[in-house]
Design brief:
By secondary structure, the chain is α/β, with parallel strands linked by helices. It contains four helices and eight strands; from the N terminus they run E-H-E-E-E-E-H-E-H-E-H-E. A six-stranded parallel sheet has the order 5-2-1-6-7-8, sandwiched between helices. A two-stranded antiparallel ribbon has the order 3-4. Helix 4 links the parallel strand 7 and strand 8. Helix 3 runs parallel beside helix 4. The structure holds pyrazine-2-carboxylic acid and zinc ion. Pyrazine-2-carboxylic acid binds next to helix 3.
Length: 206
């Protein structure tokens, strides 16, 4: 069974937001259209407490987009974004969310960031999504959303590692692109076994 996994379509990742992805909102109509073809839709929501350790503002002398070493590995520092309960953390108003059966919130532990919908950045703390999908009989995932080079990439690769068939729909994602990270992300996803397709190739009879 197939599911559409919609990654982080939140105000802060869209134009005008705290960590805006260029043209991030332009994929929303495509995602809404795709949603009509899926019976199972799961959303993720980046959901940080104030003072989250991924925020540059909590590390003295550090600026956004610098990289630091955390106990679990390297971590890009971000502008404060997607703070729990703020408008920036809400789903973009144009995203149709009614049909979604599950919302996975991530990044709510102060000490560890979480890009992937499956595991936090320590690669050990599970969100519970893999178990939910397996218990629901879902084996194939179609990923869309923001950002290609962070949350989409990490979710796609973890999805493969958890044994799912993973497709990323390339015209329904947008990237942040730090030092060519979008190109790297496509290469890493492909190497991991993620299938990259265009909506026009997606002929589903669900
Ligand atoms: C994301 C950076 C920080 C994402 C989330 O959704 O790709 N990127 N938090
Ligand atoms: Zn975040």
């Amino acid at each position: 069974m197939k599911a559409l996994l919609v990654i982080d379509i939140q105000n802060d990742f869209c134009p005008g937001g705290a960590l805006a992805v260029h043209d991030g909102d332009t994929i929303i109509p495509i995602i809404n259209q795709l949603s009509q073809q899926f019976e199972h839709i799961i959303l993720t929501q980046d959901w940080h407490p104030q003072g989250h350790s991924s925020f540059a503002s909590v590390h003295e002398g550090k600026a956004p987009y610098e990289v630091i070493q955390m106990s679990y590995g390297s971590q890009v520092l971000w502008p404060d974004h997607c703070i729990q309960g703020t408008v920036g953390a809400e789903f973009h108003p144009e995203l149709q969310t009614t049909k979604a059966q599950l919302i996975i919130r991530k990044g709510f532990r102060k000490e560890v960031d979480s890009y992937s919908a499956f595991y936090e950045n320590d690669h050990q703390t599970a969100t519970g999504l893999a178990g939910y999908l397996k218990d629901s009989g879902i084996d194939t995932l179609y990923l869309v959303g923001l950002a290609t080079d962070f949350c989409v990439k990490w979710s796609a690769i973890d999805g493969i590692q958890e044994g799912f068939d993973v497709y990323v729909i390339k015209d329904a994602v947008k990237g942040i692109d730090l030092n060519d990270s979008v190109a790297t992300a496509w290469a890493e996803m492909e190497a991991a076994g993620v299938k990259i397709i265009h909506t026009s190739e997606l002929v589903l009879s669900l």
